[in-house]
Amino acid sequence: MKNTFQGTGVAIVTPFRKYGTIDFGSLEKLIEHIIANGVNFIVALGTTGESATLTHDEKNAVINYVCDTVNGRVPVVIGVGGNNTEHVIKDLRSLNLSKSDGILSVAPYYNKPQPKGLYNHFKNIASASSLPVILYNVPGRTGSNIPADITLQLAYDIENVVAIKEASGNLSQIETILRERPEDFSVVSGDDGLTLPLIALGANGVISVTANAFPKEFSTMVNNALNNDFNKARKNHYRLKNVMEALFADGNPSGIKAALENMGLVSNNLRLPLVKVNKSVNNQIKNAIEEFGE
Questions:
Q1: Cα–Cα distance between 122 and 147 in angstroms, integer?
Q2: Would you kindly state where each structural domain of the chain is located, as residue ranges?
Q3: Tens digit of pLDDT for each residue in 11-43?
Q4: Is 90 assigned a catalytic role?
Q5: Catalytic residue among 136, 216, 232, 235
Q6: Is 165 a known active-site residue?
Q7: Residue among 60, 108, 76, 47 nearest 271 (CA)
Q8: Pairing of strands 41-44, 7-11
């Protein structure tokens, strides 16, 4: 159960057709592109997958399609989270997770629970899950930071809490987790731009947005860093820098969908309240992709 989620994970987009239905053909194309270029695992129905806009039936359809398409070639993690603990538990029981390898569960948003509430939220979710649980800390989106001591308490107390995706940007907090975690507890970056420095501090990898478009290049950077070849990793990091900045300049997943359309992989369609990136950022993304190719 432990140490499965290391290296480069990809938070995949959910492709949509023009009128909002799920484009499963493009989803297959994206999965094949990612796997062929050496990623270590796939995460579906995360923030990048616009899971908040999908119905329960659509989520099940995506889960089934992703798992069947991947067919055991890499582990598959499914985003199952929310700000109502009982509702998350109901999702765990009603979604078809039988072919999945783990769940990613975001910190409760909007409610702003106390640390004790965070601990009990994840404790109850882990108890209801037969799968390994990756905590997801992204206070910039949720308004709810998981403190280092709560992460560590969960890691030591609960066997199937096996990792955390840390996107707090708080290096001091992440350093505390890295220093004091159980030996088999993974810490992965939730910020593409901080992946290299976090691996240098001892992190185990990333769940990346950029790797939807550039899986080979991002995986190479991560693998170089994990193998302590930081000269090569730095070169790859700086080569990706302009791309990463452009992708997040007008929000995620708007940026990555613009990039994927420019690369002929996925149509640039989103569900409200998300909209396409503005014209200036779209040009910035196009230019970054062209410069990267050169």
A1: 13
A2: 7-227
A3: 999 999 999 999 999 999 999 999 999 999 999
A4: no
A5: 136
A6: yes
A7: 47
A8: parallel
Enumerate residues 6+ apart whose C-beta is below 8 A from 90: none
- Taking a C-beta distance cutoff of 8 angstroms, is the pair 159, 1 a contact? yes
Q: Are 199 and 191 in contact (CB under 8 A)?
A: no
Q: How far is CA 85 from the centre of its chain?
A: 21
- pLDDT by residue (tens digit) across 41-99? 999 999 999 999 999 999 999 999 999 999 999 999 999 999 999 999 999 999 999 99
Cα separations in angstroms, 254 against 117, 180, 200: 32, 36, 30
Q: Give the distance from CA 22 to its chain's centroid.
A: 20
The average confidence (pLDDT) of the chain is 97
Q: How far apart are CA 79 and CA 92, in angstroms?
A: 10
Tell me the percentage of the chain whose pLDDT exceeds 70. 99
Check whether domain 7-227 has CATH 3.40.710.10, yes or no:
no
Residue pair 49/79 in contact (Cβ under 8 Å)? The answer is: yes
Rounded CA separation 158/151 (Å): 11
Which among 165, 235, 241, 276 is annotated as catalytic?
Answer: 165
